[in-house]
Batch of 2 targets.
Target 1
Amino acid sequence: MSQPEGRLKRRPSAIPYLFIAPFMVTFFAMLVAPLGFAGYLSLFRTQLAGGTRFVGLANYAEVFTDEAFIGGVLRMLRYLLVQVPVMLVLSLLAALVLDSGLLRLVKFFRVTIFVPFAVPAVVGALMWGYLYGPIFGPVAQLFRFLGLDPPGFLTQDGILYSIANIAVWEFVGYNMIIFYSALKAVPPVLYEAAAVDGAGPVRTALWIKLPQLLPAIFITVLFSLIGTFQLFNEPNVLETLAPAAIGRSWTPTLYAYNLAFIDQRVEYAAAISFVLGAFIAAVSLVFMGAVTWRRKKQS
Amino acid sequence: MSPTPFTQPPHLNQLSRRRLLAGLAGLSVATGLAGCSPTGGSLGGGQSESVSPVNMEEELKKPATITFWSWSPGLDTQVKLFEKKYQNIKVELVNPGQGPPAYQKLRTALGGGGAPDVAQIEFSYLQSFIVTKNLLDISPYGANDIKGDYVDFAWKQVSAGDAVYAIPQDSGPMGMLYRSDIFEKYGLEVPTTWAEFEEQAKKLREQTDDVYMANLPPNDSGAVLGMMQQAGSRPFSIASETEIGINLTDEGALKWANYWTPLVQQGLISNDATFNNDWYQALATGRYATWIAAAWGPAYLQGAAASSAGKWRAATMPQWNAGENIAGNWGGSTSAVIAGTKFPAAAAALAQFINHDPESTNLLASKQLLFPVLKSLLSDPAFTGQEVEFYGGQKVFELFAQISDTVPQDYQWNPFQDYVNTKNDEVLGGTISGKEDLAQGLERLQADIVEYAEKQGFTVKQ
């Protein structure tokens, strides 16, 4: 494309830069600079006795042999396999039912399912902590009343499921809304065609709606993947109730937090954060790559 | 699921001001560790550079504005008294929260600016701030003049030889609170030794499965270290700024572990996490026959388990050997002057005033309900003579004032108490929760703490 000559000759103006300046300044001050500083920090080691010295990549080397960190990452993978499918299937079901037109009071149910997402995570975790209480929690009391052993919600074996349950409760509504709005965007002609072919509500859901939802499912899986590795509030709140089951490094972010603010090893915490960030990016890229590859193969 | 942002860990219990003492705090100190000065004092690392005394009268006439961080509720009354006495000094009182969050904020402020001039710090955390050279030796500001007015073990917690790093505010000599109604119902006798305690626990279990003789918390290093202290354990010692002794498996510690292991394993005692809602209810409804607590416990229970009023009594802790009279200390805090303050004289004067002025300290005991460390208060009939209805009219403060004299004098802390607390919950707490051998838990804890200390550049003697 050729440009009119006059435009090319015009003196470069500062005005566009002024317009993007607010963004650029914020972007650099709030994102790039802190990241750069954290990266710089991660190359040092400050000791309570001994002072600060440059250690190159030693902090990173330590990350890869740190059982607490690796244990946390593996635990999150397990958590991912437990929590994400349950949450997404429930969200999907909720969205499909709400969209099916078979339900009265759709608005009421939609809002009710969404409400937990509006509860701050810390408040939600505190509330569930009360429900999980091993002695006076309502569930434990009910079990005892029935002459049964109360479930070990806050024990080493049970804690993963208990926390997964909180996350499901919190995020089913959020994901449901994504699915529901995606369903609203499905062209009506598809439904009409299906109806003409004699498909009932279940068939329509399985063969029309689900395939149309694939992009939305893809995006929710990706968000969940990232969210899982950032799990922090719930275990942090429940730690006071289940100190031995959760401990200092139940999730990688909890571990980084403890390293920085309890152990006073800020530099090592920075290194852990970078490795965790890289890991999340890698997992996300692999997932996105796999999806794209599959799509290409199909088309 | 959406990303969850970092938040401050809500370190619990709003219910209690007392948690401050409670949580983490303090025992008292270490066996004659070398390095500290011969005149006693349990802090290490600080060499007093024989500074010449400051003319306080002159200094305190100068205008000054200082910031004071404290989580004790209602302390503004005392601050006003101070401002009335020293007209030219203005004090800004800030509540930074209590327990770990307070120390995290303090550290952040120390690193990034905005640090206070005076801060409330528990006994168990003083060494953690001395190692980073954040506390000012206030001996030149007349601190040693009031030394003799405090119970010895408390003063030793804040001093290293002639150097003084804080003024003691309150303490937590340990005793046993028990439910008279439960004791009566099951015909239990108040145990005076740990052997008797175990007998009573068995006697209780023969009659009911619903009540435990006591609860061994998996999440409270303050309580556990306090009990171990009574058994003679002195796990930490400060030899110099870079040399420390760590021994969590000394004779006293193992005596403690080997005593409690079978009790946990036989289900004679429970192992519930403490300072949460379930536990408050458990205290109130009589799940535990006793609570091995500290001097702040009597006031604390009145808030945490109000509905059990009148049923509680207090006694000294069971002893390891009949005829002995040794307690431990759990909790206690101080006012420390932060190095780098622009007004060291004013700050030191505030720390002393709050914790020494008769009107202020009376309020600390009666309003903030802190257990006193001043000898004058501990022997004041107006304080000790109170017949507390919650304890069926028992003079509980008189009892704890007596116990205060039986706290070991030589207990020391370590320079990284934050780490020790969280690691205790994870490792020893795991052992308690899993009903495993506590001695093995202590061994693992020892190994972890040594590894951490070495990573932090300390030379460790085990």
Note: Chain B touches chain A through 47 residues (CB under 8 Å).
Target 2
Amino acid sequence: MGLIAVFLPLFSAIFAGALGRIIGDRATQAITCTFLCVAAIASIVMFNSVILEGNTETIKLMSWIKSGDLELNWALRFDTLSVVMLFVVNVVSAMVHIYSVGYMSHDKSKTRFMAYLGLFTFAMLMLVTSNNFVQLFFGWEGVGLASYLLIGFWHHKHSANAAAIKAFVVNRVGDFGLSLGIFAVFMLFGTLQFDPVFDQASEIAGTTFEFLGHQWDALTVTCFLLFIGAMGKSAQLGLHTWLPDAMEGPTPVSALIHAATMVTAGVFLVARLSPVFEYAPSVMEFITVIGALTALVAATIAITQHDIKRVIAYSTMSQLGYMFFALGVSAYGAAMFHLFTHAFFKALLFLGAGSVIHAMSDEQDMRNMGGIWKEIPITYAMMWIGSLALAGIPFFAGYYSKDMILEAVYADHSFVGNFAFWCGIAAAFLTAFYSWRLIIMTFHGKPRADEKVMAHIHESPPVMLFPLIILALGAILSGYIAYSWFVGEDRFEFWRDTLFILEGNDTVEAAHHVPSWVPILPFAIGLAGIAFGYLLYMFRKSWPQKIANTFKPVHTFLYKKWYFDELYHNAIVVPLIKFGYVFWKGGDKKIIDGLGPDGIANSVKEGAFQIRKIQTGFVYDYAYTMLAGVVIFITLFIVML
Amino acid sequence: MYSLADFYFHATAALPEIVLTVFGMIILLFGLVREDKSTPQVTLMTVSAFAVTALVIAAMPSEPFKGFMGSFIYDPFAQFMKLLVLMGGAACLAMTLSYNTQEKINRFEFPVLALFSTVGMMFIISANDLMLAYVGLELMSLPLYVLVSIRRDFLRSSEAGIKYFVLGALASGMILYGISLIYGFSGTINFTRLSETLALQDGVSITLSFGLIMLICGVAFKLSAVPFHMWTPDVYEGAPTSVTAFLAIAPKTAVFALLARILFDGFGDMTAQWQDVIWIIAAASMIVGAFAAIPQTSIKRLLAYSTIGHMGYALVGMTAASFDGVRSMIVYMALYMVMNIGVFAIVLMLRQNDRQTTDIDNLSGLGKTHPVVALMMTVLMFSMAGIPPLAGFFGKLFVFQAAVSAELYGLAVLGVLTSVVAAYYYLRIIKIMYFEEPIHVLDKPTRDLEVISGIATIFVVAFILFPQSLVNAAQAAATALVTI
């Protein structure tokens, strides 16, 4: 069953890629969607058998590398953590596959799109089911590749290509950290298999190594490097700039890759490696701070953006920040819980936004929307459900997971924990605010689009609404159903030994004993955010502009996304390009080419013409050469005697 | 002296030569009577005579056999090399027919002269003493001088003939001077006795070495090895293309056989003396062959330098002075012959408005106008450049292997480097054929040339499937010359 769940997406990709052109769009879509739905059902069966019945297993596929001490296998590890991910990936991917049939109906390259989606899904599954660091890295790079291909899917658009390259390059920085981290793991532990590494972590803790004349704590450095990788993939502050630009890709891609699955790989990585990270407390504090800052910064940017997808993208980044500061205080279960619920409601929001964009003839700017809620009532309802879940309104999925995270960081009672708590509370207010800003700007008020677009507005076809409804069910119910498994009283039985928490670090346990105002505060602040959103965008429509004008520097600062892009461009990209120019013009062209290929070619030609000059055409010259040859040979012979 | 019975006994060693000579005389008489209109029949008869002679050789036993007081040797090496020469000669003659008619040099003497030249080559291959070798060389060369200048009314042709003759005479002088030195200081000109004498001597006479060097230089002239190569481009260009083809293919094989016999049979104990000389000649030939061909605009001159380069590679095998070296040299020459037959068949096709053209630029657009010819040329050029998996690659591979196992690393590296340079001008032809627009459309090629070139191309491509059969044959031939 596990094999079906993992390999059907691969077959789907190969099928669509190799045969798609031959059998046509319709058949390809039907077959790939069928494959993915079967894989999703298989994942549900796996969820039941592995997690609920406890049939944990590791399937060894084949030997991969055997070189000295390094021994690696292709294997599928099915335990609670990987099966949760398996479930999320396959279910969302299946929904996105179905949704794409409708969304991409006007596109020319449908089979290519389906092939890339399948490839992504497979790579993501290889990542989460890996039993060693290298297979994990394979999946890690595989999802990066698929992400690159899908962001640049509309490769005739310059901005799409630029965004694809940006995503690839920024991720490269993170991947560099990750690979260094993997090297460090091999150096410290002598193996790259998960289980032996986890078993030895407590012995390795406290050892140091020398680098640049300074003694470094081995595990701290290793975990820090691994976390750099997670930061890149999960768009944490500093390495986040690629995620908003990645919205250049088709909207189903944003839903699948840049909201529900790939960007959560970093969260998964830290949770998977919890037995190692637990022994690196300073890195854990760092993770908490980065996560808290990401949650807050992203939320502040989101309140100023106009592009509907960008707002949701910054929202994703903000929610990833929540997950990370939960990881930072050892509340792995809470982080995974939020990952689980977030996958549903964020995919729902993205696909809903896609449905709006589809209805508005590819318009993405919210300033050109408005007044359309009656035209597309189902989409409108879906966006409401998604936003309620996101804002953490009780009994929707986000309420359970987000509250749990905030309670856990509060219960940590440390400085960074408190910092994260208040950042989280502030971000929760902003989250609710920008969600309703989005809903009101998009659906309410007077129509701001031109008549042609308005005349053409239509509810999406059933093939797009069906996935929305399924995901909406998830957004409503997943928190309620899964609460006791992930963080409630069943959590030990649920997680078994996949998450490792040191004695005294169990903040999830402590979260159940916080003062009663702590669980209420996020809910109250969320309501306040909603109310504020209504006030500004429904009842006092002139206020937002006034506020923006009054606090112009602040607004510009936020609107320009804290100038991260400009900073990187001027501090890194421009000097690097100048640097590259020097090496290209001076180093490559002048020195390497000049003395190398070009220079040699020129001197060969020159030499050839010289040799030709000897060929005068006169017999006496020829005879002279012959005799000279004889004399030279005889002379040489005498000399060498 | 010998009795008549003795003569019959000894003559069996030279049976193929006798058969070919008798055929030659009959064909000459036939041509004299029927005059120039009989040229097609005469050509056909000559090719048949080559075929019959080849059959005689194939039917003869392969045990070594010496006749005429040990001056004539018949062994597997001679057998193999003679078959190569006859094959190359026959292929060249078959190619000449339509060309000679078109160029109005279809004289009946043409095939007859080629036949007698071939008899000379066979003598060279079987020569076991220096005198017979010299006579064979002259018998080979004199008809060639005539053939080169067969277009008497064409200035370039006559010029080429004179140059070839004068320089050839100089080379003959060197050879004779060398022979006299060798005789003066060893008392014999027979290879077998020479090696016996040398084996008994301790230390080598300097003057004898001088003689050997003079001899090598004279023979190197016939091979067009550097620095005795200067005649090659001029003669290749001036001679009618049919003659150039013959010149490039048959004599080289024969002279290589002679050089191998001199160096291994006669002076096998003086390896130290001749190895450096051959080393320099091989290296210089590879360098000049690679570089000087680059600025050429005439395909015939280009092929002349290509020949010089190929001689250098074959000489690398010789320099190795080992069994592997001789074997690789034999394989190289066989492959060289096949490739050149194919290339010259194509060069003979290159005609515009019923006139021969040799300008490389006229090949432009051949890929569009004559795709089949262009494809064959491409394959042959790739093979000459030594690109796997074509035959030319294996030729170079074996030669370099032999050089490396004889620890001649410098020569092997030089060979690889020069073949990179040489690849430039071979690939340039391909580039001109496919990537440049046609300037003039060439005439439709004749069928016989297409067939010959096609066979050579197929051989070059298919060689990878059965390299062992040629290597085994070369092995048997080399065994007769060098004891392992």
Note: The CA atoms of residues 308 and 364 of chain A lie 6 Å apart.
